Amino acid sequence: MNMKTIIFSFLAIVGINYLSIYLGKGFVYAQQASAQAQTLNVSPVIPAFVFVDPFTGKDFTPASLPSEVVRMFFFYDPSCDHCQHAAESVAKAADKLKNVHLTWISKPQTSPELIAKFRDTYFGKVRMNVHFVNGKGPNPYFGDIVAMPCVFIYGCKDQFVQRFMREEITGENLARFALCQ
Questions:
Q1: What phi and psi, each to the nearest 5 degrees, are found at residue 111?
Q2: Which CATH superfamily is domain 51-175 in?
């Protein structure tokens, strides 16, 4: 065996081992996310949904979302104190969440004026990828919403990552999930 063959064989073995470890981690991560989704009783992928933009009346669907970014779905009530505190904390972490798409979902009967006041109060001066929508009919099943606000975080490949409720929703907690995994 000559030296080129030995070096090539060594590099091939190292490359195959690295690939199997790298791909294995991705597989393990997907398995962990799926297991966590089952434990928390949430949808393991972004569910099909139709919300409505309260300002334009246009439908907001999964096709409205940017791809290959982390998506966070907040179920909230604009008059809820916990929701207001969560929004304030999220807005303060705007720099850390600038590559995340945030969708704030209120009940179907919530008025556009109340949503606009909430939006302007907490996100008026903040540059973020944030949309405010109303539910439209029965909520699609993201998961159990035990308390408000409730946020469901989905990764770049639409897989469930984490759910937070009430005081758990802080800009710092959410920023930990801002990068694609």
A1: -75, 145
A2: Glutaredoxin (3.40.30.10)
What confidence tier does 4 reach under pLDDT thresholds 50, 70, 90? low
* DSSP 8-state code for residue 159: B
- Rg, Å, the chain Cα set: 20
Q: Where are the alpha helices (DSSP H) in the chain?
A: 3-40, 81-92, 112-123, 171-175
Look at residue 111 and tell me whether its pLDDT is greater than 60.
yes
Note the pTM of the prediction, 2 decimals: 0.75
Ranges of each domain in the chain:
1-40, 51-175
- pLDDT over threshold 60, residue 128: yes
Secondary structure of residue 150 in the 3-state scheme: strand
- What pLDDT score was predicted for residue 178? 83
The answer to whether the peptide bond before residue 149 is cis (omega within 30 degrees of 0) is yes
Q: Tell me how crowded residue 130 is: count the other CB atoms within 10 A of its CB.
A: 21
Residue 34 pLDDT more than 80?
Answer: no
CA–CA gap between residue 79 and residue 180 (Å, rounded): 32
Q: How many CA atoms lie within 13 A of 53 on its CB side?
A: 10
Q: Which helix (H) or strand (E) holds 52?
A: strand 51-52
